[in-house]
Design a protein that fits this description.
Elements (H helix, E strand, L loop, with lengths): L2 E7 L2 E6 L2 E4 L4 E3 L3 E6 L3 E9 L1 H13 L13 H25 L6 E9 L5 E5 L5 E3 L6 E5 L5 H7 L6 H18 L7 E7 L7 E5 L4 H20 L39
Antiparallel strand pairs: 1-2, 1-10, 2-11, 3-4, 5-6, 6-7, 7-8, 8-9, 11-12
Helix pairs in contact: 1-2, 3-4, 4-5
Length: about 270
């Protein structure tokens, strides 16, 4: 499996992906899932993939080497045009492989995050689906996740906003990844983190993060400690709503119906 997150902010774009592709009892494999298409001073495009590794690698090769009827990303007029090219590549691989996969009992499973900037056009970020169609990030929904998204979603929902500085957004993405690593063995190190600054038209910050990275180790230790600290500072539940109780768990306006659990009685039981 995998976990990838991308966020579109006023200051730029943040991309983060893991590299685990298999996590069996005695077989752990890795492959990089982030690909950068860069022509400095003209365009920077970043693609991250999740799903069936053979499918995602085929899509990547079609985009790099070209395919029948597939235009080059290097000639795309703008990011919407580039996302359409990525979608066309997904559909070409689907036409070639979907029937054979279906006969083998395998779904055509792939999803991609694709974003960047071309020339003077604004930055854009897209989530491309297995059918080749896609949606675009908006100020109201400025990030996308693919893969094992549920474990790292709560911190992203609470923190990520378009106005967030790039450093804080990268920190938030890493905390989201750490939460996923903690709860799911199918996601693993090393990580690829890329931060793109708006209008720079080149990769400005990139790092591959393994278990020896001092910043990520600090994130893992500090986040766990602070969670336990905050948890300890929250009041335990008070069941009696007395005058001296600041946050009673029970409601003062609870009627007979909602003040009691729903009970089954012996009279309701089946009698054979």
């Amino acid at each position: 499996m995998t976990y990838c997150i991308a966020a579109q902010l006023d200051a730029g774009l943040v991309f983060l992906s893991d590299t685990r592709t298999n996590a069996g009892v005695d077989a752990i494999a890795t492959a990089r899932k982030m690909t950068v298409f860069e022509e400095p001073r003209d365009r920077v495009m970043v693609m991250m993939t999740a799903g069936n590794l053979a499918i995602s690698q085929s899509v990547r090769q079609v985009l790099i080497e070209g395919g029948e009827g597939i235009r080059s990303l290097w000639t795309a007029r703008d990011m919407f045009d580039a996302a359409s090219i990525v979608g066309d590549a997904v559909r070409q691989v689907r036409r070639r492989d979907a029937n054979a996969l279906r006969e083998a009992g395998i779904d055509f499973n792939v999803s991609l995050l694709f974003g960047g900037q071309i020339g003077s056009e604004r930055m854009r970020l897209f989530n491309v689906y297995a059918a080749g169609n896609f949606i675009e990030a908006t100020p109201e929904n400025c990030y996308f996740q693919i893969g094992e998204a549920k474990y790292g979603k709560p911190i992203i929902d609470r923190v990520i906003r378009p106005s967030l500085p790039l450093g804080e957004a990268a920190k938030c993405a890493l905390i989201s990844m750490d939460s996923t690593l903690k709860s799911n063995i199918s996601v693993g190190l090393p990580l690829d983190l890329l931060v793109y600054e708006v209008d720079s038209l080149r990769v400005t910050r990139f790092v591959s993060i393994d278990e020896k990275n001092s910043y990520f180790r600090m994130i893992r230790d500090t986040w766990g400690q602070r969670l336990r600290q905050v948890f300890g500072e929250i009041h335990d539940p008070e069941w009696d709503a007395g005058a001296d109780v600041e946050f009673p768990l029970t409601r003062s306006d609870e009627g007979e119906r909602w003040g009691q659990p729903m009970r089954a009685t012996r009279a309701d039981s089946f009698r054979g």
